[in-house]
Specification:
The protein has 580 residues and is α+β, with helices and mostly antiparallel strands. It has a domain at 480-578. Helix content is 13%, strand content 32%. It is built from six helices and 35 strands. The longest helix is centred in the last third of the chain and has 25 residues, at 526-550. The chain is globular, with a radius of gyration of 30 Å. The N and C termini lie far apart (94 Å).
């Protein structure tokens, strides 16, 4: 039996409609397009068999296969919808409001039974962040974060709190995927000099630190992102600070930590300084990919010992996406980058294709593991809205641009249960497509007006690093984590010394001229000798700046201005030496 064709849900200012994926690309014959311009949200169930949306008048829930209407709920203001894993409960959330006289508002988080259509529980949930309750895969457990506690309900009985996990200032948690026993990762921010920490527990053993499966504490964390692998054996924790006190990064400061349920913990050592843009687990749960470092960013795959196993080099990228089957990895640069994608064969670490999705703000793998969708959505970008469907070999299969004066808000593939789409053998030859390929315009570097009539130079602002597979093979063994850490410290000290020498005040030049410049015969005039020493000091500083520039280090505006004065200083020194 041939595998099904996934649907693509599309929401925008023209309403909501469903589109058949490859090879059809036609509107669903059974789903009647909802043209209401106030469609706020849609959602598929975890297995994709149910589809629900709110059009500003009511919530409609239909069967995805034939669009048979299952339920309608009179909830016109709902902005978020989620289904429980086994489609037993639908959770809805709308903005919390209070009365004009300051009286408390009505509950805004509602849970409905999808069999009877009755409301089974209501809660007050003021913040939209983490609004939805979390279910275990078999729905035996449901959890919510309430006032520094995690409340657990069993078998969808929301009238009784079956268990509580109480930690001081616990602000976030994540239930493990998969079956029983269910595990939970909890995060508590630090205060008054105490570190933040993440602990792993197995439900319902919440007896404190002694009963925790693992514990990892760290400083420099305003918030964290916790990511379980599919087999629920380990968690990756990205700790972020909004402000980098060293002033090195506009994006704040991030660190990455590994925590396993067997108690092992480690800080992942990243070979390049800078922000952590993305962290993703492979489906095999034995490796993960990290995109990090100042642009051009590095991407590296690590094993469960947090040792690097493949380095993709540097490039304009800020995101990584494993295919649902885990056999292909896409590295991409979206948002403020050009949309360049690199498609890699994970088993052989071989580059398959490099398509370009200009102005893309969204990426998602199709469940079949062969196609991807990229989209330009509003409000991130309000012009050029539309979506494109690609084959992983780089062929553009379908393109849709929204009409003029319209906007695209959201696209999403219909999910499917595990095993519906097995992994297929990877091909490297581009498949045929009916959409003409879009040739990217060659990017030209900006040249100031004063240099536009002069020959172009081959100077590079950054020295790109090639992938590990294309580097010359070396017999040297990979460095240990300790050696890598020490190397980073040495490099940082070296850069700091260079900057300190370049930025020394010019007044100190008179006192330390002999240290930086060769001895020169005196002219007999103390005032002239003093001027010559200062000029030589300035020229030496310019030489150091030029060396830093050639090594790829970006210079400040005042440093570039110093380099531009070199000819004037040389002429002035020559005049002094000649006694002019």
């Amino acid at each position: 039996m041939a595998p099904p064709t996934p649907l693509l849900a599309v929401r925008g200012s023209e309403g909501i409609h469903l589109v058949h994926g490859p090879p059809k690309f036609t509107d669903s014959e059974t789903f009647q397009r909802d043209s209401n311009k106030n469609c706020k949200v849609f959602s598929f169930s975890k297995d994709g068999k149910i589809f629900g949306w709110c059009n500003g008048e009511a919530i409609n829930i239909v069967n995805s296969a034939d669009s048979e209407l299952l339920h309608t709920f009179d909830l016109p203001k709902v902005v978020s919808i989620e289904f429980s894993p086994k489609k037993t409960i639908v959770a809805t959330w709308q903005t919390y409001t209070t009365g004009k006289d300051g009286t408390a508002g009505v509950p805004n988080l509602l849970l409905y039974d999808l069999k009877t259509g009755e409301c089974v529980k209501t809660f007050i949930q003021k913040k939209m962040q983490n609004w939805c309750p979390c279910w275990a895969e078999d729905e035996s457990i449901c959890a919510r974060n309430v006032n520094n506690e995690v409340h657990f309900f069993e078998n969808n009985n929301f009238d009784t709190i079956s268990n509580k996990l109480h930690l001081q200032k616990v602000s976030d948690f994540e239930l493990s995927p998969g079956g029983q026993p269910c595990k939970v990762a909890v995060y508590a921010p630090g205060s008054k000099g105490a570190p933040s920490f993440v602990r792993l527990y197995q439900y319902p053993n919440f007896g404190g630190t002694q009963s925790a499966l693992a514990n990892k504490s760290f400083f420099k964390a305003d918030r964290v992102t916790m990511l379980w692998n599919v087999k629920a054996t380990a968690v990756l924790v990205t700790a972020s600070m909004d402000v980098d006190k060293t002033g090195a990064s506009y994006y704040g400061q991030q660190t990455l930590h590994y925590i396993a349920v067997n108690g092992e913990t480690a800080a992942v050592q990243l070979p390049k300084n800078g922000p952590i843009y993305d962290v993703v687990w492979n489906k095999n749960s034995t490796e993960f990919c990290v995109v990090y470092g100042f642009m051009p960013a590095k991407a590296t795959v690590f094993n469960l010992k947090c040792d690097p196993i493949f380095d993709f080099g540097t490039g304009p990228r800020n995101a990584a996406f494993y295919s649902p089957q885990g056999h292909i990895l896409v590295l991409a640069g979206f948002g403020n980058l050009r949309g360049q994608m690199e498609v890699w064969d994970v088993k052989n670490y071989k580059l398959i294709s490099k398509p370009l999705a200009s102005d893309a703000t969204f990426f998602s793998w199709c469940p079949n593991g062969e196609n991807i969708v990229t989209a330009t959505c509003s409000p991130r970008l309000r012009v050029g809205n539309g979506y494109k469907i690609w084959h992983y070999t780089g062929t553009l299969l379908h393109k849709y641009d929204v009409p003029a004066n319209s906007e695209l808000w959201q696209v999403s593939w219909q999910p499917f249960a595990e095993g519906v789409f097995p992994a297929k053998a990877i091909v490297y030859q581009a498949v045929q497509g009916d959409v003409p390929s879009e040739e990217a315009k060659p990017a030209q570097a900006y040249r100031p007006p004063a240099l536009r009539n002069k020959p172009a130079t081959s100077y590079k602002l950054h020295e790109d690093e090639p992938p590990q597979s294309t580097k010359p093979q070396s017999n040297e063994k990979p460095m240990s984590k300790t050696a890598l850490k020490n190397q980073k410290k040495r490099e940082a000290k070296k850069v700091a010394k260079q900057e300190a020498r370049v930025d020394e005040p010019e007044e100190a030049a008179v006192q330390n001229t002999q240290e930086y410049s060769p001895a020169a015969p005196p002219t007999g005039d103390p005032e002239t000798d003093k001027k010559m020493k200062i000029l030589k000091k300035k020229l030496k500083a310019i030489e150091q700046l030029k060396e830093l520039q050639a090594s790829g280090k970006p210079l400040e505006k005042n440093q570039i201005e110093k380099i531009q004065k070199e000819d004037v200083l040389l002429k002035e020194l020559e005049d002094l030496e000649l006694g002019v």
